[in-house]
Amino acid sequence: MAQTKLFSTVVIFLLIPFVAISAVFLTFQYFNISLFDNYTKTFFNQYAPRQEDEPTNISHIVFGISASVNTWPWRHHYIDLWWQPNVTRGFLWLDYEPHQNNDDTWPETSPPYKVSGDTSSFKYTGGPLRYQIRMSRVVKESFELGLENVRWFVMGDDDTVFFPENLVSVLSKYDHNEMYYIGGNSESVEQNEGNFFKMAYGGAGVAISYPLAMVLAKGFDECIERYAHLFGCDGRIMSCASEIGIHLTHELGFHQVDLRGNPYGFLAAHPISPLVTLHHLELVDPLFPTLNQADSIEKLFASYKMDPGRILQKSFCYDLRRNWSLSVSWGYSVELYPSLVNVGEMETPFRTMKTFTMRDGPFMFNTRPLSNDLCEKPLIYYVDQVDRISEGNTRSRYKRYDAVSGEVCASEQYAPALNISYVDILTYHFHIWAKAPRRQCCDVMDDGDVDGMKSVVQVKIRECHLFESVTPQ
Questions:
Q1: Nearest to 322 by CA among 444, 428, 229, 404
Q2: Which of the four pLDDT bands, split at 50, 70 and 90, describes residue 206?
Q3: Those residues with Cβ within 8 angstroms of residue 147's Cβ, 6 or more apart along the chain or in another chain
Q4: Least confident of 73-77, 389-393, 420-424
Q5: Which pLDDT tens digit goes with each residue over 262-311?
Q6: Which residue has the higher pLDDT, 295 or 406?
Q7: For domain 58-250, is the CATH number 3.90.550.50?
Q8: What are the backbone dihedrals phi and psi of residue 427, each rounded to the nearest 5 degrees, phi first?
Q9: Residue 12 dihedral angles phi and psi, to the nearest 5°
Q10: Alpha-carbon distance 187 to 202, whole Å?
């Protein structure tokens, strides 16, 4: 009798896994779900036990760039700046097959392209720009390509300028095995009010982790039908991510640039965060006043290549012998104040720009007015060249910009500063983004010529000491 009970117990114990597996199989069959569809196989492959991941690098990112055959001929130069054949991965998603002559081939220096799927059957009541539906599906279509070794899908427009190494620095902070929806919102309050404050704006770039892309793609077409009233593609992505329970993780380096006019104040006061993207550059004045916009962007990108993590990063220092203040935006500009100005003022952007609808504000950041009185303005120096002087070290030179009118402040206080034609800045390779962000410090390195007869000021940027405070005293 005891042997019979033991045998029965063993049989039941062995049957339990079989019954459980059968129940799972029948459940999938009942709901018409294949155990071996792309999503299920992807799920098990993605979450299978594996060795410790290597650090995220550019090969783990797939770009999905929304574009049009009509705009590509005059926008491709934006992508040509940052796209690296055989290094960056992804596709340009076009509205239809590009017209090419018989002897024409798609340029090897551009991203390969794909034609978006037909969206004519989708409802759209959000305005005249129906192509927003096509653009919203780029994340789904990119995922469904089934590419291997992908951690992040990054969406952008054909006029989005990416700074890829900084993008990698930002995404490396996050666990790509979790669901993340990363980006930035508009700089203009009016745009966020008209859309959403919690939305990643598509032109600024949207980073979606692999697991979130997988779940989004599964029911994305049904989801966007529920949001036919929304205007933009980015609102649809936000809404569908929200249905899953994922909200925006805001990163300060994604820039929609919903601005008009002169963007100087915005660019010269970048937050302590890597510069990841710039968008809408066609709608603002040239970044450098002596160049057109195309050459301006190339010039800024040339600085970026010399020290990617440092581009636009701020440093403040004082020359206490001459009572001068210097505000550095590396790779872009230097402001020289012939007086002692506190950091709180210098780090606040000048209001040189207007909102997206040409108003004076409000913006999503504090601003300060730029006086019309020449004696109340700093002298501004724009980057002239950047050289690598040794491994990891650079010297950048900034040349004073004089107004077209040729007028200058006639104050005696300004006279010594007007002798300064250039500012030279020495740096070492910037690699602090893996740490808690802290602005770097700087020192004026020349001999403090009180009369200001020398035409160059030399500055060295360095890490701040533990208890160091940048204070004009």
A1: 444
A2: very high
A3: 62, 89
A4: 389-393
A5: 999 999 999 999 999 999 999 999 999 999 999 999 999 999 999 999 99
A6: 295
A7: yes
A8: -140, 165
A9: -60, -45
A10: 13
For β-strands 333-337 and 379-390, DSSP reports them as antiparallel
DSSP string across 351-408: --EEETTS-S--BSS--B---S-GGGSPEEEEEEEEEEEETTEEEEEEEEPPPTT---
What are the structural domain ranges in the chain? 58-250, 313-462
Residue 151 in contact with residue 222, Cβ under 8 Å? no
CA distance 186 to 199: 9
- Would you tell me how many other CB atoms lie within 10 Å of the CB of residue 425? 25
Q: Give the type of residue at 224.
A: I
Query: What's the CA gap between 463 and 444, in Å, rounded?
Result: 14
Instruction: Please tell me whether the peptide bond between 362 and the residue prior to it is cis, using omega within 30 degrees of 0.
Output: yes
- pTM equals 0.88
Residue 87 tokens, joined = 């290094």
The single-letter code of the amino acid at 297 is I
Do 63 and 152 meet the contact criterion of CB atoms below 8 Å apart? no
C-alpha torsion sign, points 53, 55, 56, 57: negative
